[in-house]
């Protein structure tokens, strides 16, 4: 099992999120999940919104193309990225290790 899975043309990412970090960044693999540090606190859905923005920017898609599938109030989350065509350097490197 890996931190990502293809669902037709869509990419499902499994994330372990650390809120209140100094910067937004993927820091590696945590078990079978990507570890994502995010600046926002886990209050009033702020962290989830920032994750959507971060993933949209990283995969060069619109925010509406990034959907939280599960983990609304958990550190472990699953996000669907619809029709991702551009892949960040960290994704390429980590997917080769998985």
Question: How would you characterize the overall build of this protein?
Answer:
- There is one protein chain.
- By secondary structure, this protein is an alpha+beta fold.
- It has a single domain, classed as YggU-like (Conserved Hypothetical Protein Mth637, Chain: A), CATH 3.30.1200.
- Helices cover 23% and strands 36% of the residues.
- It is built from two helices and six strands, in the order E-E-E-E-H-E-E-H.
- The chain has helices at 46-59, 89-97, and strands spanning 4-7, 10-18, 25-30, 33-37, 66-70, 76-81.
- Strands 1, 2, 3, 4, 5 and 6 form a six-stranded mixed beta sheet that branches.
- The longest helix has 14 residues, at 46-59.
- The protein starts with a strand and ends with a helix.
- The mean pLDDT is 94.
Secondary structure tally: strands: 6
Q: Provide the β-strand percentage band.
A: 35-45%
Distance between the termini: 8 Å
**CATH homologous superfamily caption:** YggU-like
Contiguous helical run count = 2
- Overall, the morphology is globular
SSE class: alpha+beta
Q: Please give the largest β-sheet.
A: 6 strands, mixed
Stretches where pLDDT is under 50 for at least 5 consecutive residues are: none
For the structure shown, list the relevant keywords.
six-stranded mixed β-sheet, about 100 residues
In short:
The protein has helices at about 45-60, 90-95, and strands at about 5, 10-20, 25-30, 35, 65-70, 75-80.
Secondary-structure blueprint of this entry?
Blueprint: E1 4-7, E2 10-18, E3 25-30, E4 33-37, H1 46-59, E5 66-70, E6 76-81, H2 89-97
Parallel strand pairs: 2-4
Antiparallel strand pairs: 1-2, 2-6, 3-4, 5-6
């Amino acid at each position: 099992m890996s931190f990502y899975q293809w669902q037709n043309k869509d990419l499902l990412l499994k994330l372990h999120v650390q809120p209140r970090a100094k910067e937004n960044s993927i820091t590696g693999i945590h078990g079978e999940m990507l570890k994502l540090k995010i600046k926002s606190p886990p209050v009033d859905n702020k962290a989830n919104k920032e994750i959507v923005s971060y993933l949209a920017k990283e995969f060069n898609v619109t925010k509406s193309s990034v959907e939280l599938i599960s983990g609304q109030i958990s550190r472990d989350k699953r996000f669907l990225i619809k029709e991702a065509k551009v892949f960040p350097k960290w994704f390429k490197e980590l997917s080769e290790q998985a």
